[in-house]
Amino acid sequence: MQPQDFKSNDPIAWCPGCGNFGILTALQKALSKLDKAPKDILLVSGIGQAAKLPHYIKANCFNGLHGRALPVASAAKMVNPELSVIVSTGDGDCYGEGGNHFLHNIRRNIDITVIVHNNQIYGLTKGQASPTTDQGYNTKIQREGVILNRFNSLAVAIASGCGFVARGFSRQTDDLAELMVKAIKHRGFSLLEVMQPCVSFNKVNTYEWYAERLYKVEEDSSYNPKDMEAALIRSFEWGDKIPMGIIYHSETDTYQDRIGKDKNPFLNQNYNDISEILEDFV
Q: What is the pLDDT of residue 142?
């Protein structure tokens, strides 16, 4: 299939120049490389600018509550393991409101892909600090600067046992599409964080700001993404140098493997007659 086969006809509501456009383009490219039809893909999102992305992709779509995309995505994958389940979420949606789900679905190692649009700000609600906003940054609400430490999502994911942790840049759509393909093909929980400017409300972390700092870890021939200690060290790089690419990669049993539902998924079980089940509650 071609990228245009995954384009919907919905009008796009993002601001001109928004980094989300690059993520949308990259995802359409990635889906076209997976040899899957739109019916085989489920996009799940919560609330926010990133959560609008499923509207612009021709595939199955579920919009949920703010921060609650991961429970829906996990349930869908357990019921139908043949689906490629992809979550489109923002830094606030996933790490703020959805932080608890983020941690525990990594622990479960559900076989889903989570693409986090990280613009380091709350874009939908007009520019207050998000969990990934840098300390000291002034917003309309944090008038004297953000006092909290930046949430290090990659370090948290690696330390929690996430088997695929990567970072991309919304401007580099070809490279980002390749990362998406690898994330989706990984068996287990995949985290792909995408740095993407918010042109309306974040005047610091611009395209130029990221371009001056982001570098590809694969340019270091000695770097081994299977080395957890080395990956953790890279995940703490921030400021003058910010790593992108596959930061950490390992394979382990998924949640479905552990409970045996990969062999007999819920989708294939007959629940037309639930009278016996209900008797247990009488």
A: 86
DSSP letter string over 178-229? HHHHHHHHSSS-EEEEEE---TTT-SSS-HHHHHHHEEEGGGSTT--TT-HH
Helix axes 20-32, 173-185, angle to 10 degrees: 50
Name the residue type at position 192: L
Backbone angles phi, psi at 44, to 5 degrees: -120, 140
Sign of the torsion formed by the C-alpha atoms of 150, 26, 7 and 189 = negative
The 3-state DSSP class for residue 145 equals: coil
What is the architecture of the domain spanning 3-279?
A: 3-Layer(aba) Sandwich (3.40)
pTM of the model: 0.92
> pLDDT > 90: what percent of the chain?
76
Rounded to whole angstroms, the Cα distance separating 68 from 47 reads 9
Instruction: Tell me phi and psi for residue 186, to 5 degrees.
Output: -65, 135
Bridge partners of residue 115, in order along the sequence: 88, 192
